[in-house]
Amino acid sequence: MGEEVKENTINRDCSSVANTMGDANHTVDSDVKYYTLEEIKTHNTSKNTWLIIHDKVYDIRSFLEEHPGGEEVLLEQAGGDATESFEDVGHSTDAREMLIQYYIGELHMNDRKKESTTETLITTSGEGSSSWTTWLIPAVAAVVIGIMYRYYMLEHKSS
Questions:
Q1: pTM: predicted TM-score of the whole model, two decimal places
Q2: Which family does this protein fall into (predicted)?
Q3: Residues pairing with 29 in the sheet
Q4: How far is the C-alpha of 68 from the C-alpha of 92, rounded, in Å?
Q5: From the centroid of its chain, how far is CA 11?
Q6: In the chain, count of helices (H) and strands (E)?
């Protein structure tokens, strides 16, 4: 019960801070702040560093000096979407859990990348065509090799 009171107090504090900011770019929906891509782009310096990872916004300025890969790597991505770079490096579970403490909000719905339906269709049709090609190509290759072997053996027997 004590935890519920503490959690509700934190949620009220967050929403009151968001409401007093008066910025049109911030909206309160279940105590989540939404930031536009334009606003995030302005936070690209070593004293004010924000990143987007998986449509979540992180203020990582206090982490710059602690980053094992150096602060330059983070500053290159500052003010933008670092999802691909973050995933390419293959961060540990601990690194992913550390992100929680730097979380400040979400990327506004209008600025999120939309998944392409053509990619899904291509992937689906690719899976269907690969099922018959996985056995057809080796079968054709085996038949050709068999014919070549028989032809070669018949030629050597007759000579």
A1: 0.55
A2: Belongs to the cytochrome b5 family.
A3: 32
A4: 12
A5: 27
A6: 6, 5
